[in-house]
Amino acid sequence: MTRRIADVLVVFVLSATAVQAAASRAEGLAAWQQVYSVLTHPRCINCHTASDHPDQGDDRHRHAFNVVRGPANQGVPGLTCATCHQRANASTGIPGGPGWKLAPLSMRWQETDGRILSSGQVCRSVTNRATNGHLDGAALLEHHSQAPLVRWSFAPGRLPSGALLTVPPLTHDGFVAATRTWVEAGTPCP
Amino acid sequence: MSLATYALTVNGKAHSIKVDSGTPLLWVLREELGLTGTKYGCGVAACGACTVDLGGVPTRSCVVPMSLVGDREVTTIEAMANDAVGRIVQDAWVATDVVQCGYCQSGQIMTAVALLKRLPHPDDRAIEQGMGANLCRCGTYVRIRLAVKAAAQQLQRGRTP
Amino acid sequence: MMDRRTFIGVSAAAAGGALLSLHFGVPVRAQQTAAAARPPDAFVHLRPDGTIVIQINRLEFGQGVHTSLAMILADELDADWSQVRAELTPAAAVYVDPVYQIMVTGASCTTAHEFQPYRELGAKTRAMLIAAAAARWKVAGSACRTSKSVVYGPNNRSARYAELAGDVTRQPVPQTVRLKAPSELTLIGKSTRRLDSRSKCNGSQAFGLDFAVPGLRVAVVARPPVFGGRVKAFDDTIARADAEHLDIFEIPLIKGSGVAVVADRFWTAKQALDRLRVDWDLSAVERADTVDLRRMYRDLAGAPGLVALVRGDATTMDRIGAADRLVAEYDFPYLAHAAMEPLNATIRFDGDGAEAWVPSQSQTLHQAAIAEVLGLKPEQVVFHTLFAGGGFGRRATMDAHLVREAAAIAKRVRGTPIKLVWTREDDIRGGYYRPMCAHRVEIGVGPDGLPRAWRHVVVAQSLYEGTFVAAFEIKNGVDLSVVDGVADTGYNVPNLHVSAHQPKINVPVNDWRSIGNSHGAFVMETLVDELATRAHVDPIVFRRSLLAPDAKKRRRVLDLMDDKSAGWRHALPKGHAAGVAVHECYGTAVACAVDVSLENGRPRIHRATAAIDVGLAVNPLTIESQVQGGFAFGLLQLMPKGAITLKDGEVEQRNFHDYTPAYMRDAPVTVDVHIVPSTEAPTGCGEPPVPVIAPAFTNALFRLTGKRYRSLPLVSL
To answer: Over 80: is that where the pLDDT of C498 sits?
Structure first.
């Protein structure tokens, strides 16, 4: 009797694993390319800089007003990110989200001269548990799905001029789906 | 336009404000409460003349709509004379004869107070980075640097038993 | 506004007798008498509580005259300085500038024009106080003396000024007074902290924008995107949708028209303005375009224009070979003033009178303009002067456009006080800029490296053509402001030919702190530097050899700057370079040396050493601040985003993110200022520091990059 239940369970588990393993390495790499296209869009990469300051704008120019990274990626005493950026987009034209700050230098996705890192370089950086905050595949999926600043980049609001900020090439749902496929494939890197 | 009623505490005093939800905190302070020490310089957070303390963070009130203030308390330049660090900064500003037209100075002082509260011994670089987004067209930067250092020294003396 | 040379011209002619003054046909002697005829009680109020309130007939907009004029009067008055306060006067004939016969704050003229008159007012009041005490005690006035707001008489008698205030008004105003000898001065010449410092540090100082009266409403104006455009139609349906109590109507502008929105609050007015749909008629206006203008200006500069100055033999150049000629073309953009306090004016029109509160650089002109719009006489407009958050020339224009706009609005909402507010976007985009300009210079260089001939063409819009000062600012068709710094150069340039083209462009222009010197000095000081390099001569030594012998102030400041900076200039760390410049304008000379390096491609000014000759220095602390501040202000000319440009008639910049002046990291870290000791008549210091910083910096940059920069701003190095 126990053995029969166990057999059933094993079959179930094998089936489930078989469904999850349906994402092949090729599919995973393709999905990663989609993820990469979002990560390197200005909405995301403007805060994943290699320098002591954020960037802004679709042309990724240096953020105005001399704002700087600071020791905890949140600006410096007297001039923090929260000095202007609030917990949500402001109707006054300043984008905002909870915990607005720069990504740590370990999560830089460009060179100091602004050249965007290659797909392989970014992939390896994102999956390096020693520097990515100990996130495994499932945690990365959760991060892409739930993290407020990630979600912000798909609804970034307006500028003071009234113009809408541009959004990444996928919707948030599309981004999460691509991430899931990539994770299911074992987070392969090119 | 959506009118809403907000509970707002400014300099320790509670107020009930009824304005459009998109009204920046700056204009509520200036026109609903008559606290004109906080200034309008640009409206796009570029100059710092509108700097207040919002929930302990130096904040550019011209870009914070009332809908995003929440229950955070506001402290303005008018309260700095009663603030231990604020008073020392104001005295240093006066002793150093910093001001010219003075229009940017409320924001400069609010920023300097925030800087010194977090970093009581700022070096030149920290002063320049912390004060680096406050615009002064009269060019009082040289004297601001000196006054911040003077205030830091005074704070240090105050802390020495 | 008007400048020193006009004053000098008038004074020189005064010896000839009945020469017309600057304005309104009043003989020159009457101007001097006008100052002498000022009643002291219009300038000094002795309060019962012992405070002494001195009336300042200027705008205080940072330059410190609120304190320095008070010092001048208080010194002669023997007032207790701790009891002295100062107030800005309303518009009234008794407060006009004694030379210009209007109320005006500009041309760095305040100290120069008011030093003597304010001393006399203080001395006369003191004399009247002594007379009052002497009468009370029945003693001779000569037996009395004063000190710190007290009159002392024989037999230990004393009376505080406050006690004598009532008696003083009954005393006759003396016709002449003895002024203090230099050794008797207690305030004049001493570094004195500003009277308005504390209030500006605790939020209590009110500026124009802060002014409020019961019932005040706020107005903002939709302006045409191209200067001079007019309203064809407007649709305020959406603007009115959610807002109550809005007044929206068309108003005339100096050229064309706009739409005023009046509301109870600024934010309400601004929201309505943003939702207003205006159909503009731009058919009849010229669309200025920076790219086209630069080309046009360069072409114009290729040929001589209206002659401003000819010295020596203009044909000398023809005999100088091409190898010995230096040809340089410069171009400069429009510049906005961008004072920290946006423009504003508050007016209430009552039908038979009006009241105005304005941070104004020309109160009597503004009063007259308001009266004209409202159909009143000037004296029916009570005009109050408020503190200004900077000005730099922007708070007065020849056409008084700001107060005319406000008056037009006040007229429509008669009985209600309205505050017209220009948003920052209005300010950046609204015109009245320092004109864009081009210079073309050809220098024939002698074997000693000194110039032997110099042909100079300047292209810039005229500031004063068609205005009420045209008679004094335009000579042979040349607007003197166009050739500022060039035609009046202190260099002993032989065979000098200066001419100008003054195209008419549909962009309003205005005085900008130091006016034409802002570009004239840049050209002269970079070219002289280039000549020095070419001749392998030290830039300071070269300037000494080129300066005219009678350029006394320039020589003094050059020497003092050299002395005070030689130590660091000759010991610069690797990667640093020094640059120098010297200039004189409005009667004051300034020299500076700057220490510059490049950090990640961005320039950094580590320090500046400045020397200034203002004649007698009334308040050394003010002078030091003006030099430090003038340098930071002047650096706007070099900032990559410091240019106003137009594309197809529309200004391209909007706010400080794309029109970016110097922040702290762009300004020198330290500026040490050295004042030439002098007892000569005082001259001003508001503008003179501005013209030297940009060329000194650029001269240093040459030593770092090997490049000469002739097109401003410095977009890339």
So the answer is: yes
For A76, name the nearest residue in chain B, comparing CA atoms only.
B130
d(CA C314, CA C37): 49
What chain B holds in terms of domains, given with CATH numbers, is: 3-76 (3.10.20.30), 83-159 (1.10.150.120)
Q: Which CATH class is domain C4-195?
A: alpha beta
Q: Do residues A149 and A95 lie in contact, with contact meaning Cβ atoms separated by under 8 Å? A: no
The single residue listed with the structure tokens 């023997």 is C78
- Shortest CA gap A63–chain C (Å): 10
What's the alpha-carbon Rg for chain C, to the nearest Å? Answer: 27
> DSSP character for C260?
E
Q: Which CATH architecture has domain C302-334+433-705?
A: 2-Layer Sandwich (3.30)
- Give the per-residue pLDDT at C21: 29
Dmax (CA) for chain C in angstroms is 85
- pLDDT at res. A127: 96
Do residues C91 and C363 lie in contact, with contact meaning Cβ atoms separated by under 8 Å?
yes
Q: Per the structure, how many domains does chain A have? A: 1
Residue at A190 is within a domain: no
| Nearest CA-CA distance, residue B78 and chain A, Å | 18
Tell me what the mean pLDDT of segment C421-428 comes to: 98
From the list B5, B49, B12, the residue with the least C-alpha distance to B28 is B5
Query: Could you please report the per-residue DSSP string of C467-486?
Result: STTHHHHEETTEETTTTTTT
Residues C557 and A75: their CA atoms lie apart, in Å, by 43
State whether A91 and B126 contact (CB < 8 Å): no
- Per-residue pLDDT at C569 exceeds 90: yes
Task: Give residue C33's pLDDT band: very low, low, confident or very high (50, 70, 90).
Answer: low
CA C191 to chain centre: 23
Query: DSSP letters along C69-94, please?
Result: HHHHHHHHHT--GGGEEEEE--S-GG
Q: What is the mean pLDDT of residues C118-130?
A: 97
DSSP class per residue in C172-241: PPPS--PPPPGGG-SSTTS----TTHHHHHTT---BGGG---TT-EEEEEE--SSTT-EEEEEE-HHHHH
DSSP category for residue C379:
G
Structure tokens at A98: 């909870």
How close C377 gets to chain B, by Cα (Å)? 32
Question: Cβ A79–B58 below 8 Å, yes or no?
Answer: yes
Q: Does residue A5 register a pLDDT over 80?
A: no
Q: What is the pLDDT of residues C202-231, one digit of tens each?
A: 999 999 999 999 999 999 999 999 999 999
Residues of chain C with CATH 3.30.365.10: 4-195, 208-283+343-421, 302-334+433-705
Please judge whether B119 and A160 are an interchain contact, meaning their C-beta atoms are less than 8 angstroms apart.
no
Give domain C208-283+343-421's CATH architecture.
Answer: 2-Layer Sandwich (3.30)
Amino acid symbol at C320: I
CA–CA separation, B71 vs A156, rounded Å?
Answer: 24
Q: Per residue in B36-82, pLDDT tens?
A: 999 999 999 999 999 999 999 999 999 999 999 999 999 999 999 99
φ, ψ dihedrals at C475, nearest 5°: -120, 125
Radius of gyration (Cα) for chain B, nearest Å?
16
Task: Write out the residues of chain A at the interface with chain B, using a CB-CB cutoff of 8 A.
Answer: 64-68, 70, 76-80, 82-84, 86-88, 90-94, 96, 160
φ, ψ of residue C297 in degrees (nearest 5): -65, -40
Are the CB atoms for C91 and C364 separated by under 8 Å? yes
Out of B68, B116, B132, whose CB is closest to A90?
B68
Which H or E element spans position C632? helix C620-634
Q: Half-sphere exposure of A24 toward its Cβ, with a 13 Å CA cutoff?
A: 2
Query: Tens digits of per-residue pLDDT, A19-75?
Result: 355 689 999 999 999 999 999 999 999 999 999 999 999 999 999 999 999 999 999
Of B38, B90, B143, the CB nearest to C628: B143
